[in-house]
Amino acid sequence: MPKIIGIGMPRTGNQTLQEALEALGYSTHLGCRDLEKIAEPDATIEVTLPIADIDARYPDSKYIFTIRDRESWLASCRRMLKENVPQHDWPDFWRLDPSEWAEAYDNRIFEASTTVGDKCLFYSVLDGWKPLTDFLGIRKPDKPFPHMDRWRQWDQQIKLAISMADDWMAPVRDSQEIRDQEGYSSLRIRYFLNVLCMRFDSVYLEVGCYKGATLAAALYNNSEAIRGAYAVDDWSWGNNKGVCKHLLQQTGSTATFIEQDFRTVTREQFERRPNILMVDLGHNYQAVMDCLEHYWDITTLEFVLILNHWNIQPIQDAWIDFVKKHNPHVTHQWILTTADLEDCEHWYSGLFVAIIRK
Questions:
Q1: I need a labelling partner for 39 at 20 to 30 A (CA). Which of 45, 130, 215, 219 fits?
Q2: b/e map of 332-345 (b: 16 or more CB within 10 Å)?
Q3: What is the tally of structural domains in the chain?
Q4: Mean pLDDT score of the chain, rounded to an integer?
C-alpha cells in the first residue's frame, strides 16, 4: 500500500484530514520533520520537509495538499500568533513576518504542483469524503465526515446567542434603525442573529429579506468576524429592495444581493459557501421545502440552519418531510417557541435552529 503524505501548510485542515484518514482505517501521525519517521504509519500529515526530498525517499507515495480560503487562512494564522499558541512544526514559517505568509503559501503550492502534481490531491476538508475516497480508491464510508471542532464552536456560539438575546444583550441594541425597522421578527431574534454572527469565519445567507431587519441585525458591527454575507430575494412579495438596502447603508453593513427567484440561484454565485442559512419565506410549506433542498449543495459541509416562523405548522411539516427524505445528520437543535404568534417581546412566531453535518 502506498504511503499517504500530507504536505499542506499549517492551519489548513491537517488535523481534520488526520481524523478522516483514521476513520478510514489508516494509522496516522501528525507533524513530521524527519524523513525516516514517514516510514512508520500508513499516513503522515503536515510533513514540513522539502517535497522533492520526500518524493526521492518515498517515490510511490500519494500526496494530499490541504487548501483553505486565503483570507480565512491568514486570519487563522494571525490568531495563532496573537494567542501565542506553541507551534513546534513549521518553525521556518512561523519565523516569517506575517506579510510573507501568503507568498510562502503560494510557493508551497507551486512546489507541490511542479514536483508531485500528478499524484497529489489538492483538497479542502469542507468538501468531505468524496474527493478523498475517490483519490484513495476506496469506498465512501457511511458515517459523518469529522468536523468535531467546528460543531463544538457552533454549539457554544448558539448557546451564547440565545443567552444574550434572552438578556437583551447584543451590539445591535445600539442601532435604533434596526430596532425600529418593521419586519416579521422580534428584537430577541435580531439580537440572537447579531451574536450568532460574531463567530469568526461566519458566512451568512438569508433567503427572503423583506425589509432587511434580520439581515441588518446579523451583520451589524460584525465586519471583523463575517467573511461573506448574501441576501436572496426577488422582491415579488412587496418591492422592499430600496428599504432593505437603505437600512444596510444606514447601519454600515454590506451584503451581496442576489435578486432572483431563490430556486434559480447557483453555487457559482457564491464566492464563499455559506455556513449559516436563515430561511424566512413566510408560512409557505413548499417554499421552505424547496429552499432546504436547493441550498443543501450550496452550504458548507457543516452549517447552521435557522427556520423562522417555527410556530406555524407548515414550517414544521416542511422540515419533518425534508428529514424523512434526506436524513440529514443533526448534531444539535434548539426550538424557541412562543405562546402566541407574532410575540414581539419574545421569539415572535418561533425559531428553529440546528447544526447540520452532511
A1: 130
A2: eebebebeeeebee
A3: 2
A4: 90
CA distance 319 to 154: 21
What's the CATH code of the domain at 21? 3.40.50.300
Domain that holds residue 274: 149-357
Neighbour order of strands in the sheet with 351-357: 256-258, 226-232, 202-207, 276-279, 302-308, 351-357, 329-336
CB-based burial label for 30 (10 Å; 0-12, 13-18, 19+): middle
Q: The pTM is what?
A: 0.62
Q: Give the model's confidence band at 144: pLDDT under 50 very low, under 70 low, under 90 confident, else very high.
A: confident
SS3 content of the chain, % helix, strand, coil (to 5): 45, 20, 40
- Boundary (domain end) residue, out of 108, 143, 178: 143
| Residue that is last in its domain, among 82, 116, 143 | 143
Residue 146 has pLDDT above 90, yes or no: no
CATH value at residue 250: 3.40.50.150
Using CA atoms, how far apart are residues 214 and 179, in angstroms rounded to an integer?
10
Q: Which of 116, 17, 14 is nearest to 57 (CA)?
A: 116
**81 grid coordinates:** 500568533
Instruction: Write out pLDDT tens, residues 200-213.
Output: 779 999 999 999 99
Which residue from 73, 107, 16 is spatially nearest to 30, judged by alpha carbons?
16
Tell me, what's the pLDDT at 149? 53
DSSP 3-state assignment of 78? Answer: helix
Backbone angles phi, psi at 272, to 5 degrees: -130, 140
The residue type of 142 is D
